[in-house]
Design brief:
heterodimer, A: Protocatechuate 3,4-Dioxygenase, subunit A, two-stranded antiparallel sheet, 11 strands, 0% helix, globular, B: mainly beta, Protocatechuate 3,4-Dioxygenase, subunit A, five-stranded mixed beta sheet, four-stranded antiparallel beta sheet
């Protein structure tokens, strides 16, 4: 077996590869599903904004299908929604993503997963990618989600975006400290 | 209420011991940014074993040649970086996006926040991208980046390096790393490189000089292969 190539930090200058707004908008006029805006922020252990983080998300479409050949329910590439986004944090440590609320994706043993975005986070000072998820406050199915069930009950709220208005959510990523976001080993 | 069941083939969990630690005290920026709670182990689902593989990152004709993205040629030593993207089972990863970014020959990034007192090069932006071919092969033409000082500690210098971004076939294969150059005297002083705990793993980030990769009379050549997570042998029912 070949040994894995180790990760290194992206450092502070990845903006020369990924423009500031990167892929902040995942939807087109033809995308099916409920439009949502996720307003996020990233803060460090001192509560300071992390102004040089790169946030990547991956998600299913409104029907809960992933735009990928190994989701046998899809019928090839979906030109209207590919499910990938990436965006920087700004000078206040904030980012905004415009997308759709994903549908239900099957989880272990066929249990349905509540709607969620898969998140990968890179930054100066992070030598590896951090992986987390964004769930939605107004989804009753969160209570039955098999991945949230892996998390201690008092920390689950760090994975749930707060509903601010119809279709508008707020999600704080805290890298360190008493309200530290749950990060996954997957 | 059963939806049509299908199987997924999970990705192998990385072995312990070779991955860099996020709590690397010698690299000061980690102090307030590394999580202090243990990572929560979760099963892989369809959400993780899929990822952006369909045409993300449409490519321009000069995207893989960083020496030909402007009217003039950049200053510095032209190099070719040639390699393959493979998985742990030595299977090539075809049609996957490989991206690079780097400083110019003077050690300066074309980024507003880079304050190093070294000249910018109007003919060098420092970013490139390409897709691997059917055999997982990729090739960039660029210039060798310079070393540069940074504020981590007294008299700190980053060794010349090229940042790599690789997607692979799923969210789980995503990799950001840095390629270094053989024989570099700065490597042993670099806390980012040293955050990888074992010498055998650090060596995987050092490209090898390869005369066979050079373009005679034009560019030196380095080989850099990248190994992403491979698949488990046993499928999982969904």
């Amino acid at each position: 077996m070949l040994p894995l190539t180790p990760a290194q930090t992206v450092g502070p200058f990845f903006a020369i590869l990924v423009p500031a707004t990167g892929r902040a908008t995942l939807v087109t006029d033809h995308t099916a599903g409920q439009r949502i805006v996720v307003e996020g922020s990233v803060r460090d252990g001192a509560g300071h904004p992390v102004v040089d983080a790169l946030v990547e998300i991956w998600q299913a479409n409104a029907a809960g299908h992933c735009n990928h050949p190994e989701d046998s329910r899809t019928l090839g590439p979906d030109a209207t929604f590919d499910g990938f986004g990436r965006v920087h944090t700004d000078a206040d440590g904030r980012f905004t993503l415009e997308t759709i609320k994903p549908g239900v994706v099957p989880g272990p043993a066929g249990q349905p997963q509540a709607p969620h975005l898969v998140v990968g986070l890179f930054a100066r000072g992070l030598l590896t990618r951090l992986v987390t998820r964004i769930y939605f406050e107004d989804e009753p199915s969160n209570a039955l989600d098999p991945i949230l069930a892996c998390v201690a009950p008092d920390r689950r709220s760090t994975l749930v975006a707060a509903r601010r208005a119809e279709g508008r959510y707020r999600f704080e990523i805290v890298l360190q400290g008493p309200h530290e976001t749950v990060f996954f080993d997957v | 209420m059963s939806r049509s069941a299908f199987q997924i083939l999970p990705y192998r969990r990385p072995p312990a011991g070779d991955a860099p630690v996020n709590d690397a005290t010698a690299y000061r920026s980690t102090a307030l940014r590394h999580p202090t709670q243990p990572l929560v182990v979760i099963p892989q689902t369809l959400s993780e074993i899929t990822g952006p593989v369909y045409g993300y990152g449409r490519l321009g004709p000069m995207d893989h040649d960083l020496t030909r993205q402007h009217d003039g040629a950049p200053l510095g030593e032209r190099i070719i970086i040639d390699g393959r993207v493979l998985d742990e089972d030595e299977r090539p990863v075809p049609d996957t996006l490989v991206e690079i970014w780097q400083a110019n020959a003077s050690g300066r990034y074309a980024h507003a926040h880079d304050t190093h007192d070294a000249p910018l090069d109007p003919n060098f932006s420092g970013a490139g991208r390409t897709l691997t071919d059917a055999h997982g092969h990729f090739r960039f033409m660029t210039i060798k980046p310079g070393a540069y000082p940074w504020h981590n500690h007294d008299n700190a210098w980053r060794p010349p390096h090229v940042h790599f971004s690789v997607f692979g076939r799923s969210f789980l294969t995503r990799l950001m790393t840095q390629m270094y150059f053989p024989g570099d005297p700065l490597l042993r002083f670099d806390p980012i490189f040293a955050a990888i705990p074992t010498e055998r793993a650090r060596e995987r980030l050092i490209a090898s000089f390869d005369l066979g990769v050079t373009d005679p009379g034009r560019a030196l050549g380095y080989r850099f292969d990248i190994v992403l997570r491979g698949r488990d042998a046993t499928p999982m029912d969904l």
